[in-house]
Amino acid sequence: MKPGKKMLAAILIVIAALIYVAAFGAGSSIKGVREMRYGIDIRGGVEAVFEPQGLDRTPSEKELDTARQVIETRMDNQNIVDREVTVDKNGGYIIVRFPWKSGETNFNPEEAIAELGEMAELTFRDPDGNVLIQGKDVQSAAPETANNNGIKSYQVALSFNAEGSRLFEEATGKLIGKRMSIYMDQDLISSPTVQTKISGGQAVITGMQDYDDAKNLAEKINAGSLPFSLKTTNFSTISPSLGNNALSIMVYAGIAAFLVICLFMLVFYKLPGAVACVTLVLQTVLQMLAVSIPQYTLTLPGIAGIILTIGMAVDTNIIISERISDELKKGISVKGAVLAGYKNAFSSVLDGNVTTAIVAIILMFLGSGTMLSFGYTLLIGMIVNLLVGVSVSKHLLLSMIQNAPWNDAKWFRIRKDKKIIPFYQKKYIFGIISGVVILSGIVGCFIFGVKLDTQFTGGAVLSYSVSDEADTGKIQAAIERETNRPVTVQIKEDNMTGLKRLSVTLAGNSGMSPEDQKKVTDAINSTSEKVDAKLSETYVVEPYIGAKAMKNAVVAILLSLLFIVVYVWIRFSSISGLPAGVTAMIALVHDVVVVFFVFVLFQIPLNDAFVAVVLTIIGYSINDTIVIYDRIRENRKKDSKMPVDELVNISTTQTLGRSINTSCTTGICVLIILAASVYFQIGSILEFSLPMFFGIITGCYSSICVAGTLWAMWEKKKVIVKK
C-alpha cells in the first residue's frame, strides 16, 4: 500500500483498535492494562513462611540459599518479578513476599501460595525405592520436540551438576533395562526405562504424549530442585507500601507529562511533532500490552524501563524532525526532505537503540526479579521504537503530505544558522565543573555516609499488634527520625485469625537491642494515641537481594559497559572506534558516579531503585553520545582533513538542539512525576524520580561536554605521538 489517504486511514484504525485492546483486553488470554499484575508496593500481596520438613537439624546456610534460588527461579519463570525472598538463618526458614494476581478478588493468601507450586523434594530412585540422586543435583530440565526418521516425539532434556553427573552415570550403568523412578516427596511423577549408561551430565526422558506433557514434567523437575521439602507454616496478607491512591496519582502524573511532551512537540516541530504524538500513543500502548498480556509484574524498575523507552521514542522523533529541518534548509521539496531526513537519521536511531538493547539483553540473561523486569520492558521498548518510531511514523508523515494543504514547508520547522560553539576550547572549564561535582560527592560520602536499604543489608523485623488507626506513612517517618535507619512499614493480616499486625523492617545487620526496640515502639505510639502498638515478635532476615543476584547485577553493568565499548569501536571505526568507545564509557562512568552522589547527598538508601536509575541513565546517556558521534562520522566523510577540534565543535553544535530538546522532554516527564511524589508524599517514587532527574541532566552534560572533547583530545594526542 502506497502512502496516501488509504494508508493514513489504515494506520489510524489499527491504532484505535490497539487502544481498545489495551483498555478493555480481548478475551481471557489478552488482558488490558487495567488487569495488569502490579507490584507489592502498589497493590499489596502475600507473605508466606516456609520451613524445612523431614530434617532433624537446622538447615545449613548453603542449603537455605539453594532453596531460595530455586524459589526465585520458579517465580521468574512465572513472571513474578516483584518479590522479596529472604531467609532467617537462625530460625532456619524462608520468607516469601509476592503480589496478588491481576484478577484476584478473594484475596486469600492460602490460595495465592498455590501459584508457587509444590515445595516438595525431588528424588530419583531405583526399583527398590533407594534414593540415587536428589533434586539439588539437577541444574535444569527443559521440554523438547524431537524428530526421529520423520516421526515427531516429545522429551525432557535434563542437565546435572558435577556431583549429579557422577551419580547419574553410576545409576544408569546399574539400571540398564530397568526403570528409574522420579518422585516429588512420595508422589511418583515419572518412571522412564534406562536404555544405556549415560555420562556427561546430559540426558533425555522420552515417551511424552505431547509437548504440554513434556512441559509439565520439566516444570515439576525444576520446581523440585530443592535440598529439602518445604511446608508453609504461616501466611498473611500485606498492605501496599505506597498507599491505595498511589497508582491513580502516578497515572494522572504520567498523562500530564505525556500531554506536556505532545504540546512541546507540536509547538516546536509542527507537523512532524503531530505525527510524533500519534506514534508515541501507539508505542506506549504496545509497551503496556507487552507487560499486561504475559502478566509481567509491573515494578518500579519496570516503570523505569518504560520511562526510558518513551524518552528514547521522543528522541527518535526529535532526531528525525531535526534532520528534516536540515534538508528543508537546503531548499529541497517537502517530500524529498522527509525521505532524506528519515534516511539520514536512521544510523543514529539504530545505533542508539542497539546499544540500549545490549544492556537489556545482558540484564535478562543475568538478571532476576526486578532487574529482569527492567530488562524486559527495555528490550520490548527498543524493538517497538525501531518498528514504530521509524517505519510507522515515516509512512504516516508521507501519507499526510500527499494532501496538498500539508505539503507545504510552513508546517515544518526550518533550521536557522547557528554560531559554532567552541566546545573543545572550553574543555578545561568542563573538567573543573566535573571535578567540583565529583569532589562534592566524595565529601558528602564522608559527611553523610552511604545508606543501604534492607534489600542489600537485610535487617531486623519487628512485628506489632496495633489498632486500625495505624498510619504507615507517619509511623515510617517517626521511626526513621528516631533510628536514622532506612525503614519499611507494612500492615499484615493473619488469614487464620483476622488479626492485623504492623511489620517494621529496619535495614542493617546489627540487630536490635531491647533499648532500641523500646525507642521504636515509643516512636510508633507517638503518631497517635489510638495506635496502642505492642511488640509481639522480632527476628533478623538476610538481604532480599541475595549475594548471587548482587553479583549478577554488577556483572551485568560491567558487561554492558564493555559491550558498548566494543559496539561503538566497530560501528565508528571511521573515526577511530576504540577512542570513541572508551571516551563514551568514561562519560557513562561519570554519569553513574553523579547518580550515586545524588543518592548519598539526599540520604536516599541504595536499593533496587538505584540499580534501575543507573541502568536507565546508561541507556539514555549512550544514546545521546552516539548521536554526536554519528554527526562527527558524517562530517568527517565530507571533509576528512578537518581538524578534530573544529570537527567536534561543528558536530556538537549541529546536534545541540536535539540533545537539549530530548533532555527537556524527558526531564519534564520525570519532573512532573517528581512533583507528584513530593506533593502526595510517595516516598519510593520520590527516591526514584529525584536521582533520575539529576541523571538526565548529567547524561546530557556528559554527552555534550565530556565524551566529544575527550575523543578530540585523544585524537590530537595520537597526531602528536605520530609526529
Automatic annotation (TrEMBL):
Subcellular location per the Swiss-Prot or TrEMBL entry: Cell membrane
Similarity remark: Belongs to the SecD/SecF family. SecF subfamily. Belongs to the SecD/SecF family. SecD subfamily.
What InterPro entries does the record point to?
SecD, SecD/SecF_arch_bac, SecD/SecF_bac, SecD_SecF_C, SecD_SecF_C_bact, SecDF_P1_head, SecF_bac
> What Pfam families is this protein classified in?
SecD_SecF_C (PF02355), SecDF_P1_head (PF22599)
Alphabetized PANTHER family for the sequence = PROTEIN TRANSLOCASE SUBUNIT SECD, PROTEIN-EXPORT MEMBRANE PROTEIN SEC
Q: What is this protein called?
A: Multifunctional fusion protein
Q: Per UniProt, what is the membrane topology?
A: Multi-pass membrane protein
How this chain assembles, per its entry, is: Forms a complex with SecF. Part of the essential Sec protein translocation apparatus which comprises SecA, SecYEG and auxiliary proteins SecDF. Other proteins may also be involved.
